[in-house]
User: Fold this.
Amino acid sequence: QVQLVESGGGLVQPGGSLRLSCAASGFTLDYDTIGWFRQAPGKAREGVSCMAKGDGRTYYIQSVKGRFTISRDSAKNTVYLQMNSLKPEDTAVYYCATGLECYPHTDSYYYTEPNYWGQGTQVTVSS
Assistant:
């Protein structure tokens, strides 16, 4: 049974940092692509970052490039999203998801619809 549990969200001031964690069970991260998504109030959900299975190639949307970093710890079967230089527009519920594929597209990426989702963690960037 696939399960994804996010943690690490919270309230942070603009310019601050947070590290989100997504603990996975029921599958092995090394063999499955995993992505981070977010949904702000009144806005559509968007993919933020993705790590491909196997070689671990990473993808980011343009607005977070240079500020966010996706990584995984195979021993812990956990994926992380390190978020630096946070901005108010980064405020959203962040979700990890798997059962998707990601592909490069110009300076960003596109993805297929994930099959499995975590419950989400709230990130609020405000002074």
